[in-house]
Amino acid sequence: MTEKNLQILFANRPKGWVDQSAFEQVETPLPDLADGQVLVRNIYLSVDPYMRGRMNDAKSYAAGFELGQPLQGGVVGQIAKSRNPDLQEGQYVSGMLGWERYSLSDGKGLQPVDPALGPLSYYLGVLGMPGLTAYVGLLDIGKAKEGDTVFVSAASGAVGSVVGQIAKIKGCRAVGSAGTDDKVAYITDELGFDAAFNYKTADSLGSGLRETCPDGIDVYFENVGGPMLDAVLPRLRYQGRIALCGMISQYNLERPEPVYNLISLLVSRASIQGFIVSDHWDRLPAFVADMSGWLREGKVKYREDVMDGLENAPAAFIRMLKGENFGKQLVKLGEE
Ligand code: NAP
Asked: Which residues, including other chains, have CB under 8 Å from residue 71's CB and lie 6 or more apart?
């Protein structure tokens, strides 16, 4: 192969909002394979909110990105060369690999993907990590049950859109918030949420919640944190549950915003539990079986926002953090 590899390196640790100076694009020779290794041709790359946390020099649940090394993320690709008897050339796989056209791997952590269950890109979204996050967070952590009112923030996104649709399948009332009128129309008109509001144009977060959840909230699937969490707390019903999935409104702030209404947990005997999807891989088989069925039956719809070209991965990541994505943000690196 005379082709070169293109890589996006982590060049500078951002303070506050991320910009292009955090990234550096380099061309490198394609690596040679040792016994047991494979070369993966990366096709889709996922850019996800948690990557902002990995850019900080602070202790977290995932190791930080190393300066001077390619950033890492969820990838679907095809085995281009193999010296590993368990992985055949031409096979499609998913795994955590570099922001690069080709990745060298010893095969550990690579999962075969089945193109028959859905498009390859779905393994980075509705059939992958974000879908499993929605499933575990809503059903295992939030313990949503028939008749519950489920409210989810960032409701048009990769995780949130799936949360609301699973809630509907389970007989709940699904309510969401999103940052544009188009997103609000999409989740109610196309995804079947019972109600939604634009958190940027509502008179206040409290009034948006009062109008859409007049009888209170049984399960809050928390994706954004900050003022939204504060507005939800007093609206929790008796023994309400908050599944704390993420707090994207806080990721780029140098000083987190305070939350004032925690006493509402006491008043309503409610609970809040954080969770990390990687602690729940044991739920993958049940999730894939359920989700592939729901997709086939048309009970779950899914939207993607795809940018072309590895060189646009930093721009895709930055626009997702700003809320400019409409659906799961992906980068397409090459042909399927
Ligand atoms: P996503 O929702 O597809 O994209 C991010 C969305 O967040 C944006 O489109 C934007 O939508 C919203 N947003 C951005 N800034 C915001 C702000 N200041 N206030 C309110 N909303 C804002 O991303 P995703 O991958 O599905 O992730 C959603 C959440 O789940 C994130 O918090 C992420 O960290 C979390 N997550 C957690 C786990 C876990 O294991 N715990 C796993 C996956 C994801 P709007 O236009 O609606 O503002």
From this structure: 8, 9, 10, 23, 51, 65, 98, 99, 313
Residue nearest to atom 48 of ligand 1 (CA): 179
Q: Report the predicted TM-score, pTM, of the whole model to 2 decimal places.
A: 0.97
Checking 197-203 for CB contacts under 8 A at 24+ apart, the result is 199/153, 199/228
Give the distance from CA 103 to its chain's centroid: 22
For residue 190, the 8-state DSSP code is I
- Domain ranges for the chain, please list them: 4-125+303-332, 129-278
> pLDDT tens track of the chain, all 336 residues?
567 999 999 999 999 999 999 999 999 999 899 999 999 999 999 999 999 999 998 878 888 999 999 999 999 999 999 999 999 999 999 999 999 999 999 999 999 998 988 899 999 999 999 999 999 999 999 999 999 999 999 999 999 999 999 999 999 999 999 999 999 999 999 999 999 999 999 999 999 999 999 999 999 999 999 999 999 999 999 999 999 999 999 999 999 999 999 999 999 999 999 999 999 999 999 999 999 999 999 999 999 999 999 999 999 999 999 999 999 999 999 999
- Please give the CATH number for the structural domain made up of 4-125+303-332: 3.90.180.10
Tokens (6 digits) for 333: 């690196």
Return the closest-CA partner of residue 276 out of 251, 228, 244, 317: 244
Looking at ligand 1, which atom is closest to the CA of residue 274?
41
How far lies 65's CA from each of 70, 73, 140, in Å?
Answer: 8, 10, 30
Ligand 1 pocket mutation pick from 60, 151, 181, 223 by most atoms within 8 angstroms of CB: 223
- CB within 6 Å of ligand 1 — which residues? 48-50, 130, 133, 154, 156-160, 178-180, 183, 223-224, 245-249, 275-277, 320, 323, 325, 328
The architecture in CATH of the region 129-278 reads 3-Layer(aba) Sandwich (3.40)
Closest ligand 1 atom, residue 137 Cα: 41
